[in-house]
Amino acid sequence: MPLFSYDTQTAQVLEKSFSVMTQERLAKGASKISADKVMEMLRKGDDFALLDIRTPGEKRVITIATENTLDIPLNVLFKKENLDTLPTKKPLIIVCHSGSRAQQAAAGLRAIGFGNVKVLKGGLKALANSDSTKNAPKVQS
Questions:
Q1: Residue 69 burial (CB < 10 Å; 0-12/13-18/19+)?
Q2: How confident is residue 1, by pLDDT bands cut at 50, 70 and 90?
Q3: Which of 74, 118, 119, 140 is the most buried (most CB within 10 A)?
């Protein structure tokens, strides 16, 4: 009898998810985008969406308050009703705290057919460091 066992049901779900990640699909993978570039896009008013996949607790402390931000935590991102809200015709920039969860979300979204995905390199930490009076988007008063 083996001393180690694993969750067979979860392994089957993951096998199904990762089996579509062929070399061809991964080659079309999400690129990373710098925080400075995102700040520039915000200043210019470019048409894109920020997808904040952090937990509600994380968002309670620091929030991204742009008109083009979607708040969908990673643990519910792949529910049909949430996937249906994601844009398909403009860039979708995924944001988490440091970038590692965003990479996972991007891999999953690419696996199901989203080709417009980018990952914010360094996550919210990098975006906060990039925010300054010279970089910040103008706000209507």
A1: middle
A2: low
A3: 119
